[in-house]
Amino acid sequence: MASKTLQEEFQMSTKKKSLKIASDYDIFKDKVLLDKLRKKIIENIIDNNLENSDNLKQYVNDIIDKSLEGYDLSTLERTHVFDLIEDELKGYGPLTVLLKDKNVTEIMVNAPDQIYIEMDGRIIKDESTSFINNDHILRTIERIVQPLGRTIDINNPMVDSRLPDGSRINAIIPPLSLNGPVLTIRKFRDDIVNIEDLLRGGTVTPYMARFLEACVQSKFNILVCGGTGSGKTTILNILSSFIGREERIITIEDAVELRLNQNHVISLEIRNCNYDNGKEVTTRDLVRNSLRMRPDRIIVGEVRGEEAFDMLQAMNTGHEGSLTTLHANGPMDALNRLETMVLMGGIELPVKAIRGYIESAIDIIVHVERLSDGKRKITSIAEVVGFNGDDIKIKEIFAFKQKGLTENNEVNGEFILYNYLPKVYDKMKQKGIKLVDDIFQPIIDNKKKK
After folding, report:
1. Entry pTM
2. 121: containing domain
């Protein structure tokens, strides 16, 4: 007989959270008129260069009055039109409301009427807003990036930066984008996610949480891997929170996302060529420079290319407890990608030597996934245990095994602690870390009985 879940055993019913956002057209029923009116007002304001006019409010009211002659609109509809125009002039146009909505974690603009958002880990098409045309999207992008000291035009058709609140913004326009201007914003969370949040959300188990804390306290070099939007940076931020307050931490990121509460933190950020027309400063430059800054810990937000070798060198030359992330489909894939990055960096070393560097540098690999139901889980915690012939060998310590889907299309599965005593456990003991003694003592006792 198949085992039942708690919900099935106690006949608990669950209500799915609605992801629907109120549409403009729920307030203003005449879609054609709304788009026509909005287009007319916005184009008049741009043509007359009245964005900073003292009489702008009166001008907008006059345009609305003239445009609405012969239409019987309610006060609510009229106010809504004015709010849309105000967002256009003082905010980020149609995206203003979405950027303010804390439930929206990512915004993707593919076309004027194709706006997708992420809510509760799920990507849905947003029917609440739209742009007039591609020029409207481009003007919004320009309004966003200009205060950041960035430009986007035919000579600089791609921008990757961050908003003042820390949100990541990526924009790409023709001729690179064949679909017209495309904008992606990954919003910065106001609330700092901690390990308790992950426990409540089912991302990790208490055993896994304590094991990861012990790994950080033991100064193991940890690699966090996963796909886009899987939560790698969140995991990295939480792992960083386990670092002692007295340690000197150097963080290196494309755009600053990490938020550490320790007292001695130095944050470094790369600089692209498109930034104030200055010289490019790469992750590799900052990794090399960080070695001269007397770090106790080096945290690289994401390793993507030639900086991989410099990071491995740092890990192998006394900079214990370094943390980083990279895109990969699993722990073994992460090591293979790391090897490829070193080779792409033009380092003239035999593959066997590079693998030796990786094997001696990386202690723990944490793989995080965003599952089909939108929930994020750490699906594997593995350690590097040496070589199997010429190949690096890893061994899983914890894992999440998916069994299927529930009636509500939620992922059904379980976390597993393997009957295996990790090599890193001895290193923890040598460093006086006792956080996980109770987790592995039963395995030790069973070995003694055999």
Report:
1. 0.78
2. 101-190
Q: Work out the angle between the directed axes of helices 307-316 and 331-344 (0-180°, nearest 10).
A: 110
310 in any annotated domain: yes
CA separation for the pair 423, 176 (Å, rounded): 49
Average pLDDT over every residue of 142-153: 87
Q: What pLDDT is stored for residue 97 in this prediction?
A: 86
- Which pLDDT value is given to residue 54? 57
Distance CA 72, CA 376 (A): 49
Last residue of a domain, one of 57, 90, 123: 90
Is 145 a member of any domain?
Answer: yes
Q: Is 37 helix (H, G, I), strand (E, B) or coil?
A: helix
Highest mean pLDDT among 27-36, 142-151, 320-329: 320-329
**Which of 39, 163, 184 shows the shortest CA–CA distance to 107?**
184
What pLDDT score does 11 carry?
46
- The domain tally of the chain equals 3
HSE-CB at 41 with a 13 A cutoff on CA atoms is 29
pLDDT of the residue at 340: 93
In a domain, 2, yes or no: no
**Strand, helix or coil for residue 172:** strand
